Each structure stands twice: as C-alpha cells, then as structure tokens.
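User: Could you check the structure of this?
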Amino acid sequence: MKLYYSPGACSLSPHIVAREAGIKVDLQKVNTKDKSMEGGGDFWQVNAKGYVPTLELDNGERLTEGPAIVQYLADQKPDSGLAPKNGTMERYRVQEWLNFLTSEIHKQFSPLFRPNTPEDYKTIAKENLAKRFDFLDKHLAKNEYLMGKQFTVPDAYLFVLTNWTKPTQIDLSKWPNLQKYNQRVAARPKVKEAMQAEGLIPKEPARAA
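Assistant: Sure, the predicted structure tokens are below.
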C-alpha cells in the first residue's frame, strides 16, 4: 500500500495508525500547495479532491478521507485493538469521535491556515475551537484516551489536530488534560516513528553497543 502524505498534515493520522497496526505502507510525499509530488507527478491525477491523505491499495484502488482510511487500516489488523468490531456499540463510539473531530475540530482549524482568512473570522474560529477543547478537556480528565484506556484510531487524529495549536498560536496549556494527552500520545514509540519519518522531530541517535 502507498500513503500519499504531507508532513504534519491530517495524513499523519493514518500514518500513525499504519505503524501502530504493524502495516507497512510506502510513503509518497505531496506538496499540497502546488499539488506536485516528490520524485515527480501531478497529485491531481491521484486524487481529484486535491488533498491528503490518499491510500492506494495493492490492487490499485484508492481510498480518500482520513476517518475512512484509518478504519480500513485498523480492520486489516483487528487484533491490534485500534478499532472495535463492526456492529458493536464501541465501534459506533469510535465513529462518533471521528465525526466529531473531522467536523468540529478539523474544519475549525482550516481557516486558520489560509493566508486570506480575515482576522475577525480567525478569532471566531479560535473561540469555536476553545469550546470544543473545553469539552475534550473534561472528557480526558477521566480517560487516558478517547475510548478509555485503549488507544484507538480517533486518538491518532486528535493528536495531529492538537499539534496544530502550535503553528496557529493557540495555547494548549489552557486545557491541561488535553495537553497531557497530547504528550502521552507523543511518547508512544510508533507515533515517534511516524513523526521522525515525516521529518517533524529529529531521529534519536543510535545507542552504542
């Protein structure tokens, strides 16, 4: 499989999930501004929507939209615990979280990254995010991860979204439980691997024998 990604973008979520599940994916870096790809090629020809992530399966089919991709990956390795079984209430809870994150968090961040967004609107977007962060902070005061003690696919997504507070100048320390959660996920070995592979954090030096 091949994952089309841009460093630190929402494509980092399925990248993390693939590593957590032990699924090998080839990485294809995409420049989301001009839609070019590392090594050549036009990303528009890969995904007519023009944005990452895109997962290309071994049979040539392509799957888009992060929440769909992470569930697909988790279902390839059901024993990983990254997503509960289909048809269970827990699975619907995971989907509930994925929908909340994509509609209420992700989309509020989008205008903050656009240079032509009016400052007044950016203020409104940050106020909306603050309300959602209030909700998440209360939930995480009692839960290690979104689904309780088990790391699941929406955790990879929320981790990426909380990282976006840095370039958008949002002080995450206002929500201490959410900040601790971000640090907890960041410490996971497979999360570190994904971030190192995307050049987001330096690789740890090899230990001497």
